[in-house]
Amino acid sequence: MAHSDLQERNPDLPQRILVVNRGSLLDEGIFRLISSKSNLDVSTIDFEGEDVLVNDIVSRCPEVLVMGQTVSVKIEKLYTLLTSNPALSKLRMIIIHSNDNAVDIFSQEKHNSIPGDDFIALVHGVQAI
């Protein structure tokens, strides 16, 4: 798939979601929850190390990566590696922290202009994802 093919997503195609499985019940639950939605193309990969993970993501070009926080992956390093690849410019990473029920969302999506109300909602953190 060429980079130009990834610029505008076809709304008729299901969104590609990649769930990283580290063998936990949380990972299995996330996969089952997301895959129950018919408008999503959900696949899973087993975590085999940071380098293998990056290669899997680059080869699959998902629009969303979902994974639980783990000490074996440096999220900042992973984000830097992935955002340096133009084919993954629309990738969103959702990192779930099971110890405190927090979720981190990383995205490099850029907007040329945002209407005032949408900007205020973005500042408040209530913009729909």
CATH topology: Rossmann fold
What ranges have pLDDT less than 50 throughout 5 or more consecutive residues? Answer: 1-7
- Strand sequence of the main sheet, in spatial order? 2-1-3-4-5
Domain module tally: 1
Q: How helix-rich are the residues, as a percent range? A: 25-40%
DSSP summary: helix tally? 5
- How far do the termini sit from each other? 25 Å
Give the strand tally.
5
- Backbone CA Rg: 15 Å
Q: Can you tell me the CATH superfamily?
A: Response regulator
Sketch the major β-sheet. Answer: 5 strands, mixed
Structure description:
The structure is a single chain. The chain is α/β, with parallel strands linked by helices and 129 residues long. It has one domain (13-124): Rossmann fold. 35% of the residues lie in helices and 24% in strands. The protein has a 5-stranded mixed β-sheet, sandwiched between helices. The radius of gyration is 15 Å and the shape is globular. Residues 1-7 have low confidence and may be disordered.
